[in-house]
Amino acid sequence: MTLTTNQPQQKLTFAQFLEQLPDEGRYELVDGEIMRILPTRMHENVAEFISDSLKAEVRRLNLNYRVSGRIMVRTLNAEENEQGRHPDVSVVDKTLWDSNLSAHSALLEPLQLAVEVVSTNWEDDYVDKLDEYQRLGIAEYWVVDYLAIASRSYLGNPKQPTVFVYLLDNNKVYQSKAYRGTDKIVSRTFPELNLTVEQIWTA
Known about the structure:
This protein is an alpha+beta fold.
């Protein structure tokens, strides 16, 4: 996924970012600048497969969730600056979503689950978004490194495709577990989910 910038004259707030969003494409607010997200087709395939799998689980169990790849969320970085993040897959409480249907698809409240599919700018997902999503209080966060492009300090040696699931503990700090190969991903949001890492790679 490649990011390009529009070079704004001043650092934008989240509200200004929403007002200035172009009609086409996906964008994030990063350090006060509008950044366009340009994912590869493979990246889109992986994100769509995960989204479809979670939607199927919502339908199967009649869960009160909305699953979407088009939800924006306001976060704060370590400097308390507003960011606008656009997870590849978002799971939000449907009651919260339906409480204001005339509003933009941008949330100030935490998602139930955020999924980021890793691309070349992998530190964004492993470091920056991890910190921001933890601050916001997103209960569950997946980092899907299907290309195994993060450093060996994350992936081990030899590096292999990995899904990291981060869960907030009682102290509101993420605890992580890594899943690889035929491991079945264990999700707090979808406890009956039957999805392996291998299925995601072969999607």
